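Hi F.,

I've been meaning to write this up properly since the lab meeting, where we talked about keeping a consistent format for the predictions we share between groups. The idea is simple: the sequence comes first, exactly as it goes in, then the structure tokens exactly as they come out, then a line or two of notes. No screenshots and no reformatting. I'm using this chain as the first example so we have something concrete to point to.
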Amino acid sequence: MLIDTYGRVATDLRVSLTDRCNLRCTYCMPEEGLQWLGRSDLLSDDEIVRLVRVAVTRLGITEVRFTGGEPLIRPGLVGIVERCAALEPRPRMSVTTNGLGLARIATALGAAGLDRVNVSLDTLRPEVFRALTRRDRHADVISGLRAAHEAGLSPVKINAVLMPGLNEDEAPELLAWAIQRGYELRFIEQMPLDAQHGWKRDGMITAGEILDSLGTRFRLAPEGERVRGSAPAERWIVDGGPHRVGVIASVTRPFCHACDRTRLTADGQVRTCLFAREETDLRGALRSGASDEEIATMWKLAMWGKRAGSGLDDPSFLQPDRPMSAIGG
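Output, unedited:
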């Protein structure tokens, strides 16, 4: 197992397939983009599948989430999903995406064995989408959500980040829209993972503010810690059910005590936490001829050293050098 010194066991693997993205969200990266990884720095399809196999068959991983950057721009994505779906035991698999390419690929992903998707959608207003992402692609995300639902990639989850002066008033509207279409909405507090290092605690919309806004239109009842388990989102039952809404409050309500995640960057580095400043190089071990057992041992040692928490409340907290797009969401 991937156990740490605090008794937490990692069963959820987040695999970044690329650091590249076809949006330029203001809370993630500058308009001109970033210095992307070179092709030779990225794990190959075979290397990704091998590391997932080690994680699933030797280390107790049961959930695999493919992330980025934007994972749908990875040419081999469908093949990677298909090969991982053939593993024994078979992990549950999902993709976190901005949704731009979903209309094209959702059916193929479902046929390959993908279970569900998480799609980023911060606003229902095309003009606000343009301001947030610096791209005029709102209609493509809406089409992608519809295609994912029709392909059976359910529950289709929507991730939304609220930003002051742009979409902070949209929480009730987003929830009503998601409920009407059978999507599960989750709000995420803006985190200090932007490439520009411009995040400020007093400039973010907090979980409390989100819930207050939702409460102007809906009656919310907490689902409870027992039901939540290790899930990052606190969930509320909406108007007596059956619909639910989630809030991931990484900053104001950390959930580190129940964290069950391990992360693999697109260049093959193990990270124990989104906010970790240390990495363990599995790509180098792979390319030096390490056996599966040696790789598993390296991974276990990395996770054994996982810290108690993210450190966001510590005055000495330093934002990771890598932004979210390079770490993998």
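Notes:
The chain has a mean pLDDT of 91.
The first strand starts at residue 2 and ends at 3.

If this format works for you, I'll send the rest the same way.

G.
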